[in-house]
Protein backbone atom coordinates (compact mmCIF):
# COMPACT_ATOMS: atom_id res chain seq x y z
CA UNK A 1 0.00 0.00 0.00
CA UNK A 2 1.37 3.43 -0.93
CA UNK A 3 2.13 5.99 1.75
CA UNK A 4 -0.76 8.20 0.62
CA UNK A 5 -3.29 5.38 0.70
CA UNK A 6 -2.04 4.28 4.09
CA UNK A 7 -2.45 7.88 5.37
CA UNK A 8 -6.02 8.01 4.05
CA UNK A 9 -6.87 4.64 5.56
CA UNK A 10 -5.29 5.36 8.96
CA UNK A 11 -6.96 8.78 9.27
CA UNK A 12 -10.16 8.15 7.30
CA UNK A 13 -12.64 8.97 10.06
CA UNK A 14 -11.18 12.42 10.79
CA UNK A 15 -10.52 13.24 7.14
CA UNK A 16 -14.02 12.24 6.05
CA UNK A 17 -15.66 14.47 8.65
CA UNK A 18 -13.28 17.36 7.90
CA UNK A 19 -14.32 17.05 4.27
CA UNK A 20 -17.99 17.07 5.29
CA UNK A 21 -17.29 20.11 7.48
CA UNK A 22 -15.69 21.94 4.56
CA UNK A 23 -18.60 21.05 2.29
CA UNK A 24 -21.14 22.20 4.85
CA UNK A 25 -19.27 25.49 5.43
CA UNK A 26 -19.21 26.15 1.68
CA UNK A 27 -22.92 25.37 1.46
CA UNK A 28 -23.64 27.62 4.45
CA UNK A 29 -21.63 30.44 2.89
CA UNK A 30 -23.56 30.39 -0.38
CA UNK A 31 -26.97 29.83 1.23
CA UNK A 32 -26.29 32.47 3.85
CA UNK A 33 -25.16 35.16 1.43
CA UNK A 34 -28.16 34.42 -0.80
CA UNK A 35 -30.54 34.85 2.16
CA UNK A 36 -28.82 38.04 3.34
CA UNK A 37 -28.76 39.56 -0.14
CA UNK A 38 -32.44 38.77 -0.58
CA UNK A 39 -33.17 40.82 2.54
CA UNK A 40 -30.83 43.57 1.37
CA UNK A 41 -32.50 43.87 -2.03
CA UNK A 42 -35.94 44.00 -0.40
CA UNK A 43 -34.85 46.95 1.75
CA UNK A 44 -32.60 48.71 -0.79
CA UNK A 45 -29.40 47.81 1.02
CA UNK A 46 -26.03 47.01 -0.50
CA UNK A 47 -25.54 43.37 -1.43
CA UNK A 48 -22.48 41.39 -0.38
CA UNK A 49 -20.14 39.14 -2.30
CA UNK A 50 -19.40 35.69 -0.85
CA UNK A 51 -15.97 36.97 0.24
CA UNK A 52 -17.57 39.91 2.07
CA UNK A 53 -20.12 37.60 3.68
CA UNK A 54 -17.38 35.29 4.99
CA UNK A 55 -15.98 38.17 7.11
CA UNK A 56 -19.39 39.47 8.20
CA UNK A 57 -20.74 39.29 11.74
CA UNK A 58 -23.82 37.42 10.48
CA UNK A 59 -21.68 34.53 9.18
CA UNK A 60 -19.42 34.56 12.22
CA UNK A 61 -22.24 34.36 14.76
CA UNK A 62 -23.99 31.59 12.82
CA UNK A 63 -20.75 29.59 12.89
CA UNK A 64 -19.83 30.36 16.50
CA UNK A 65 -23.23 29.63 18.04
CA UNK A 66 -23.19 26.17 16.51
CA UNK A 67 -19.58 25.40 17.33
CA UNK A 68 -19.87 26.43 21.00
CA UNK A 69 -22.79 24.08 21.55
CA UNK A 70 -20.99 21.19 19.85
CA UNK A 71 -17.91 21.64 22.00
CA UNK A 72 -20.08 22.01 25.12
CA UNK A 73 -21.83 18.76 24.22
CA UNK A 74 -18.54 16.90 23.95
CA UNK A 75 -17.01 18.53 27.03
CA UNK A 76 -20.00 17.62 29.19
CA UNK A 77 -20.29 14.18 27.64
CA UNK A 78 -16.62 13.34 28.15
CA UNK A 79 -16.64 14.44 31.79
CA UNK A 80 -20.16 13.22 32.64
CA UNK A 81 -19.48 9.68 31.39
CA UNK A 82 -16.71 9.44 34.00
CA UNK A 83 -19.25 9.67 36.79
CA UNK A 84 -22.66 8.92 35.26
CA UNK A 85 -23.69 5.55 33.86
CA UNK A 86 -26.58 4.24 31.81
CA UNK A 87 -27.47 0.58 32.25
CA UNK A 88 -27.44 -1.19 28.90
CA UNK A 89 -26.06 1.67 26.83
CA UNK A 90 -23.05 1.35 24.57
CA UNK A 91 -22.28 4.96 25.53
CA UNK A 92 -21.74 4.01 29.19
CA UNK A 93 -19.01 2.35 31.22
CA UNK A 94 -19.85 -0.68 33.30
CA UNK A 95 -21.96 0.18 36.31
CA UNK A 96 -19.17 -0.95 38.66
CA UNK A 97 -16.52 1.29 37.02
CA UNK A 98 -17.84 4.72 38.05
CA UNK A 99 -15.02 7.28 38.54
CA UNK A 100 -11.50 7.89 37.23
CA UNK A 101 -10.26 4.34 37.60
CA UNK A 102 -7.09 3.08 39.33
CA UNK A 103 -3.58 3.93 38.09
CA UNK A 104 -3.18 0.32 37.06
CA UNK A 105 -6.42 0.36 35.04
CA UNK A 106 -5.41 3.64 33.41
CA UNK A 107 -1.81 2.50 32.72
CA UNK A 108 -0.20 5.56 34.28
CA UNK A 109 2.95 6.06 36.33
CA UNK A 110 4.67 2.77 37.10
CA UNK A 111 1.86 0.91 35.34
CA UNK A 112 2.55 2.65 32.02
CA UNK A 113 3.54 0.41 29.14
CA UNK A 114 6.50 0.92 26.78
CA UNK A 115 4.33 2.60 24.15
CA UNK A 116 2.28 4.70 26.62
CA UNK A 117 2.42 8.48 26.07
CA UNK A 118 5.30 10.15 27.90
CA UNK A 119 3.07 12.24 30.16
CA UNK A 120 1.12 9.12 31.16
CA UNK A 121 4.38 7.68 32.50
CA UNK A 122 5.77 10.91 34.02
CA UNK A 123 3.53 11.04 37.07
CA UNK A 124 2.78 14.18 39.13
CA UNK A 125 1.07 17.19 37.56
CA UNK A 126 1.92 16.09 34.03
CA UNK A 127 -0.05 12.86 34.36
CA UNK A 128 -2.87 14.64 36.20
CA UNK A 129 -3.11 17.25 33.44
CA UNK A 130 -2.77 14.75 30.60
CA UNK A 131 -5.44 12.58 32.23
CA UNK A 132 -7.90 15.49 31.88
CA UNK A 133 -6.65 16.92 28.58
CA UNK A 134 -9.52 15.69 26.38
CA UNK A 135 -12.22 17.32 28.48
CA UNK A 136 -10.01 20.37 28.94
CA UNK A 137 -9.47 21.01 25.21
CA UNK A 138 -13.20 20.61 24.51
CA UNK A 139 -13.98 23.04 27.31
CA UNK A 140 -11.39 25.50 25.98
CA UNK A 141 -12.86 25.44 22.47
CA UNK A 142 -16.36 25.77 23.96
CA UNK A 143 -15.27 28.86 25.87
CA UNK A 144 -13.55 30.37 22.82
CA UNK A 145 -16.55 29.65 20.58
CA UNK A 146 -18.94 31.14 23.15
CA UNK A 147 -16.75 34.24 23.32
CA UNK A 148 -16.74 34.47 19.52
CA UNK A 149 -20.53 34.10 19.51
CA UNK A 150 -20.88 36.93 22.01
CA UNK A 151 -18.63 39.23 19.98
CA UNK A 152 -20.09 38.45 16.55
CA UNK A 153 -23.63 38.22 17.88
CA UNK A 154 -23.30 41.65 19.46
CA UNK A 155 -22.11 43.08 16.12
CA UNK A 156 -25.01 41.56 14.19
CA UNK A 157 -27.58 42.57 16.84
CA UNK A 158 -26.26 46.13 17.08
CA UNK A 159 -26.72 46.49 13.33
CA UNK A 160 -30.36 45.49 13.81
CA UNK A 161 -30.76 47.93 16.72
CA UNK A 162 -29.44 50.83 14.65
CA UNK A 163 -31.84 49.90 11.84
CA UNK A 164 -34.64 50.22 14.42
CA UNK A 165 -33.44 53.68 15.59
CA UNK A 166 -32.19 52.29 18.91
CA UNK A 167 -28.89 52.71 20.75
CA UNK A 168 -26.37 49.88 20.53
CA UNK A 169 -25.56 47.43 23.35
CA UNK A 170 -22.30 46.98 25.21
CA UNK A 171 -20.73 43.51 25.29
CA UNK A 172 -21.87 43.00 28.88
CA UNK A 173 -25.37 44.15 27.95
CA UNK A 174 -25.47 41.77 24.98
CA UNK A 175 -24.34 38.74 27.00
CA UNK A 176 -27.35 39.25 29.29
CA UNK A 177 -29.74 39.93 26.41
CA UNK A 178 -32.57 37.79 25.12
CA UNK A 179 -30.95 37.57 21.68
CA UNK A 180 -27.75 36.00 23.08
CA UNK A 181 -29.50 33.51 25.34
CA UNK A 182 -32.16 32.62 22.79
CA UNK A 183 -29.42 31.69 20.31
CA UNK A 184 -27.51 29.82 23.04
CA UNK A 185 -30.39 27.80 24.49
CA UNK A 186 -31.80 26.80 21.11
CA UNK A 187 -28.42 25.29 20.27
CA UNK A 188 -27.90 23.67 23.67
CA UNK A 189 -31.28 21.92 23.69
CA UNK A 190 -30.53 20.14 20.43
CA UNK A 191 -27.13 18.95 21.67
CA UNK A 192 -28.51 17.57 24.91
CA UNK A 193 -31.34 15.90 22.98
CA UNK A 194 -28.78 14.17 20.76
CA UNK A 195 -26.78 12.80 23.70
CA UNK A 196 -29.86 11.64 25.57
CA UNK A 197 -31.26 10.01 22.42
CA UNK A 198 -27.99 8.23 21.66
CA UNK A 199 -27.63 7.03 25.24
CA UNK A 200 -31.14 5.59 25.21
CA UNK A 201 -31.33 4.23 21.65
CA UNK A 202 -28.00 2.44 22.08
CA UNK A 203 -29.55 0.28 24.80
CA UNK A 204 -31.93 -1.46 22.44
CA UNK A 205 -30.67 -0.78 18.91
CA UNK A 206 -27.51 -1.92 17.17
CA UNK A 207 -25.25 -0.86 14.30
CA UNK A 208 -23.16 -3.78 13.22
CA UNK A 209 -19.45 -2.95 13.02
CA UNK A 210 -19.67 0.49 14.62
CA UNK A 211 -17.67 1.10 17.80
CA UNK A 212 -20.60 3.28 18.90
CA UNK A 213 -22.80 0.19 19.14
CA UNK A 214 -22.75 -2.89 21.31
CA UNK A 215 -22.28 -6.18 19.51
CA UNK A 216 -25.45 -7.09 17.69
CA UNK A 217 -25.93 -10.13 19.90
CA UNK A 218 -25.11 -8.35 23.18
CA UNK A 219 -27.91 -8.29 25.77
CA UNK A 220 -29.87 -5.07 26.31
CA UNK A 221 -28.73 -4.65 29.93
CA UNK A 222 -25.01 -4.85 29.10
CA UNK A 223 -22.87 -1.74 28.58
CA UNK A 224 -20.16 -1.68 25.89
CA UNK A 225 -17.51 -2.69 28.46
CA UNK A 226 -19.41 -5.68 29.82
CA UNK A 227 -18.17 -9.03 28.46
CA UNK B 1 0.86 5.21 11.10
CA UNK B 2 0.93 8.54 9.25
CA UNK B 3 0.33 11.51 11.59
CA UNK B 4 -2.81 13.54 10.97
CA UNK B 5 -1.08 16.97 10.94
CA UNK B 6 2.48 18.25 10.56
CA UNK B 7 4.25 20.66 12.91
CA UNK B 8 3.96 23.51 10.38
CA UNK B 9 0.15 23.64 10.48
CA UNK B 10 -0.33 25.75 13.63
CA UNK B 11 2.07 28.64 12.77
CA UNK B 12 0.51 28.99 9.31
CA UNK B 13 -3.00 29.04 10.78
CA UNK B 14 -2.03 31.70 13.35
CA UNK B 15 -0.43 33.85 10.63
CA UNK B 16 -3.60 33.66 8.53
CA UNK B 17 -5.76 34.69 11.49
CA UNK B 18 -3.54 37.71 12.29
CA UNK B 19 -3.54 38.82 8.63
CA UNK B 20 -7.33 38.57 8.43
CA UNK B 21 -7.73 40.59 11.64
CA UNK B 22 -5.54 43.33 10.18
CA UNK B 23 -7.62 43.58 7.01
CA UNK B 24 -10.87 43.81 9.00
CA UNK B 25 -9.42 46.60 11.16
CA UNK B 26 -8.41 48.72 8.14
CA UNK B 27 -11.87 48.38 6.59
CA UNK B 28 -13.56 49.47 9.84
CA UNK B 29 -11.63 52.77 10.09
CA UNK B 30 -12.52 53.68 6.48
CA UNK B 31 -16.20 53.05 7.19
CA UNK B 32 -16.17 55.36 10.23
CA UNK B 33 -14.60 58.14 8.16
CA UNK B 34 -17.24 57.79 5.42
CA UNK B 35 -20.09 57.74 7.96
CA UNK B 36 -18.78 60.83 9.73
CA UNK B 37 -18.36 62.71 6.47
CA UNK B 38 -21.94 62.01 5.29
CA UNK B 39 -23.46 62.91 8.68
CA UNK B 40 -21.50 66.17 8.96
CA UNK B 41 -22.24 67.09 5.32
CA UNK B 42 -25.98 66.58 5.95
CA UNK B 43 -26.10 68.63 9.13
CA UNK B 44 -23.96 71.38 7.57
CA UNK B 45 -26.18 71.50 4.44
CA UNK B 46 -29.30 71.96 6.59
CA UNK B 47 -27.63 74.67 8.69
CA UNK B 48 -26.49 76.45 5.49
CA UNK B 49 -30.08 76.32 4.15
CA UNK B 50 -28.85 74.11 1.28
CA UNK B 51 -31.84 71.79 1.07
CA UNK B 52 -30.82 70.38 -2.30
CA UNK B 53 -27.51 69.01 -0.99
CA UNK B 54 -29.16 67.76 2.20
CA UNK B 55 -31.81 65.79 0.30
CA UNK B 56 -29.14 64.27 -1.93
CA UNK B 57 -27.70 62.64 1.17
CA UNK B 58 -31.03 61.07 2.24
CA UNK B 59 -32.25 57.60 1.33
CA UNK B 60 -35.24 57.61 -1.04
CA UNK B 61 -37.55 56.54 1.80
CA UNK B 62 -36.24 59.31 4.06
CA UNK B 63 -36.66 61.83 1.23
CA UNK B 64 -40.33 60.85 0.92
CA UNK B 65 -40.71 61.00 4.70
CA UNK B 66 -39.49 64.62 4.82
CA UNK B 67 -42.38 65.82 2.71
CA UNK B 68 -44.81 63.64 4.67
CA UNK B 69 -48.44 64.04 3.65
CA UNK B 70 -47.84 67.56 2.27
CA UNK B 71 -46.72 68.58 -1.24
CA UNK B 72 -43.76 70.50 0.13
CA UNK B 73 -40.69 69.36 -1.81
CA UNK B 74 -37.79 67.83 0.09
CA UNK B 75 -35.28 70.70 -0.37
CA UNK B 76 -37.75 73.01 1.41
CA UNK B 77 -39.14 70.58 4.00
CA UNK B 78 -35.73 69.29 5.09
CA UNK B 79 -34.75 72.74 6.32
CA UNK B 80 -37.35 72.38 9.10
CA UNK B 81 -35.03 69.93 10.89
CA UNK B 82 -33.50 71.65 13.90
CA UNK B 83 -29.74 71.41 13.46
CA UNK B 84 -27.22 73.20 15.67
CA UNK B 85 -23.51 72.60 15.25
CA UNK B 86 -21.53 69.99 13.34
CA UNK B 87 -19.25 68.69 16.07
CA UNK B 88 -19.28 64.90 16.13
CA UNK B 89 -19.69 63.47 19.66
CA UNK B 90 -20.27 59.82 18.98
CA UNK B 91 -20.10 57.36 16.08
CA UNK B 92 -21.32 53.78 16.02
CA UNK B 93 -20.90 51.67 12.86
CA UNK B 94 -22.16 48.09 12.89
CA UNK B 95 -22.45 46.26 9.59
CA UNK B 96 -24.32 48.47 7.14
CA UNK B 97 -26.01 50.59 9.84
CA UNK B 98 -24.58 53.59 11.66
CA UNK B 99 -25.49 56.23 14.24
CA UNK B 100 -23.80 59.61 14.57
CA UNK B 101 -24.45 62.15 17.33
CA UNK B 102 -23.51 65.41 15.63
CA UNK B 103 -24.19 68.84 17.10
CA UNK B 104 -27.64 68.78 18.69
CA UNK B 105 -28.88 65.96 16.46
CA UNK B 106 -28.66 62.19 16.23
CA UNK B 107 -28.77 60.77 12.73
CA UNK B 108 -29.01 57.15 11.61
CA UNK B 109 -27.36 56.08 8.37
CA UNK B 110 -27.48 53.05 6.10
CA UNK B 111 -24.96 51.81 3.57
CA UNK B 112 -26.68 51.34 0.23
CA UNK B 113 -25.26 50.39 -3.15
CA UNK B 114 -24.26 54.03 -3.73
CA UNK B 115 -22.61 54.37 -0.32
CA UNK B 116 -23.65 55.73 3.07
CA UNK B 117 -26.85 57.78 3.20
CA UNK B 118 -28.88 59.34 6.01
CA UNK B 119 -31.89 57.19 6.87
CA UNK B 120 -33.25 59.12 9.85
CA UNK B 121 -32.55 62.59 11.21
CA UNK B 122 -33.87 65.03 13.81
CA UNK B 123 -33.91 62.14 16.29
CA UNK B 124 -34.59 62.53 19.99
CA UNK B 125 -33.83 59.86 22.57
CA UNK B 126 -36.81 58.16 24.25
CA UNK B 127 -36.02 56.28 27.51
CA UNK B 128 -36.41 52.55 26.96
CA UNK B 129 -37.65 52.99 23.40
CA UNK B 130 -36.53 53.82 19.87
CA UNK B 131 -35.51 57.37 19.00
CA UNK B 132 -38.33 59.64 17.84
CA UNK B 133 -37.19 61.05 14.48
CA UNK B 134 -38.49 63.95 12.39
CA UNK B 135 -37.23 62.19 9.25
CA UNK B 136 -37.61 58.43 9.11
CA UNK B 137 -36.70 56.26 6.13
Characterization of the model:
The complex is a heterodimer of chains A (227) and B (137). Chain A has 227 residues and is mainly alpha-helical. Helix content of chain A is 66%, strand content 0%. Chain A has 2 domains: 1-54; 56-227, no CATH class. In chain A, α4 (57-83) packs antiparallel against α8 (133-163) and α4 (57-83) crosses α10. The longest helix of chain A is centred in the N-terminal third of the chain and has 31 residues, at 12-42. The model of chain A has no long low-confidence stretch (mean pLDDT 94). The mean pLDDT of chain B is 86. The radius of gyration of chain B is 21 Å and the shape is elongated. Chain B has a 5-stranded antiparallel β-sheet with strand order 1-2-3-4-5. The termini of chain B are far apart. Chain B has helices at residues 9-47, 51-56, 60-67, 74-77, and strands at 88-94, 97-102, 105-112, 115-126, 129-136. Classes of the chains: A mainly alpha (227), B alpha+beta (137). Chain A binds chain B through residues 3, 6-7, 10-11, 14, 40, 44-47, 55-58, 155-156, 158-168, and chain B through 1-2, 4, 20, 23-24, 59-61, 92, 94-99, 108, 110-113, 120, 123, 125, 129-131, 133, 136.
Q: What are the main properties of this structure?
A:
heterodimer, A: mainly alpha, 2 domains, 10 helices, 0% strand, B: 137 residues, alpha+beta, Nuclear Transport Factor 2, Chain: A, 5-stranded antiparallel beta sheet, 30% strand, elongated
What is the overall silhouette of chain B?
elongated
Instruction: Note the overall shape of chain A.
Output: elongated
Query: What is the domain tally of chain B?
Result: 1
Please outline the major beta sheet of chain A: none
Strand order of the largest sheet of chain B: 1-2-3-4-5
Which blocks of ≥5 consecutive residues of chain B have pLDDT under 50? none
Oligomeric state:
heterodimer
CATH class of chain B: Alpha Beta
Largest sheet of chain B: 5 strands, antiparallel
Structural class of chain A: mainly alpha
Secondary-structure element sequence of chain A?
HHHHHHHHHH
Strand residues, percent of chain A = under 5%
Number of helices of chain B: 4
Amino acid sequence: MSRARRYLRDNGLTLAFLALLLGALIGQAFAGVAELNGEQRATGGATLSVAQYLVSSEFAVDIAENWQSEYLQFALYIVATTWLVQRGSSESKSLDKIGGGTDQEQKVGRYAEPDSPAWARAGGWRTALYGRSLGAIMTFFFAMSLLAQSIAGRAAFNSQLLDRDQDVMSWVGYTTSADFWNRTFQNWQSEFLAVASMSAFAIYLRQRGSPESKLVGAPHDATAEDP
Amino acid sequence: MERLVSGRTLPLALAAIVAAAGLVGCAASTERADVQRVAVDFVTAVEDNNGQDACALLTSEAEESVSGATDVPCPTAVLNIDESGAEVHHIQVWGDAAQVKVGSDTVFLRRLSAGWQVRAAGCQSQPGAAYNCDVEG
